[in-house]
Write a structure and sequence with these properties.
The chain is an alpha/beta fold. The protein has 16 helices and 14 strands. The strands form two sheets. The chain has a seven-stranded parallel sheet, sandwiched between helices. It has a seven-stranded parallel sheet with strand order 10-11-9-12-13-8-14. The radius of gyration is 22 Å and the shape is globular.
Amino acid sequence: MTKFSDLGLAEILLRALVQEGYETPTPIQAQAIPALMEGRDLLGIAQTGTGKTAAFALPILNRFIADRRRPAPHSARALVLAPTRELAAQIADSFRAYGQFMRPSVGVIFGGVSHRPQVEMLSRGLEVLVATPGRLLDHLASGKLRLDMTEVVVLDEADHMLDLGFLQPIKQIVSRLPKKRQNLFFSATMPKEISGLAQGMLDNPARVEVTPVATTAERIEQHVYLVDGGAKRDILVELFADPNLARSIVFTRTKRGADRVAQHLEKAGVEAAAIHGDKSQNQRERALDGFRRGKTRVLVATDIAARGIDVDGVSHVVNFELPETPEAYVHRIGRTARAGAAGRAISLCDNGERDLLKAIEKLTRQSLPFTDRRLYADAHVERPVPGRRPAGAPPRSNSGGPRSAGAASKGGAGRGGAGRGQAPKSGAAAGRNMHGKSRPGR
């Protein structure tokens, strides 16, 4: 079995990994780090929660250990681009954790906060700058930042970064970079169109693909409730009657929907907070802090959080609404079962979302077990609160049958026991390898 000590990393990085309690690299780290240590460009594809941050952070830090020169004012030797504020902050924390004995200058910039502290930080020069594209472009336009001396550029969550909303900003940023540089793209999903664009920006890259594209973590138990749209909120409250849903993230498609769901849960006595792009940075930080500390049982989020929340011990992810793109499903449920732990993902699917469900099953190459909670004529028995004795016959489930939730959502349901239809139990504790702490390992 490969160990970090086999990868040629500097002693002070190995010491930091020992300090953090890690010994064994994940597959993406074991394959990516040697290629990056050689200075190659790289396209790395691995499912979320497998340690992609360490796969690029450790080689970058190792490079700077070998060449400890002071960065020029208003410049950054390495640039890491991330799609969300939360993810940017977590990546910066990872660099600090791995570099704790070398103390690299690490900065993070994103929108929603004052420019002045960021300008002062940039004026001193940084070894590692982690940024969201919008605020980075602001500093470039003002002349407070230059990228002509940047040696390494990383696009984390590259499929999302190169999607329509980020394509133009990325092109503007790339135009400011020197031609001679090392390029690193990491992502959990990589559609063919986006992969082609990435290949055009990379120079003879090594490709590391440790899992099939868009697969979900094996330790996530997934289940679908087929529901009537108007019953979703009540069924959601029923789910949280089960104490095993201890630390959960509920995903909605819209910001307003996230606020409404959080308010509904609060009225039902379930501690909940919403987090989305319309919240101020302080509000988002307070919501995340309460969730991490266990003061808030449920975090209700839009997809902005699917690639930015990395919290230990998330027992369940609940899709109150299915995402418009199946790739987003992979990122959403990847918020649980992180760092080698087990987790549960529950999806509420109404009749209008059946095509979205079929797309998810096609992308992930699996048929999802389901329980039918719809009240139509030929299956009109409502599911009781999980854990309580049914008042009538159980709702129909496919837990013992071969049919998929996507197929059943057209009006039929498979047969089988109702046991798998109950709210899943909480996940197991994380192991102590590179998966072991999600903050540095992601």
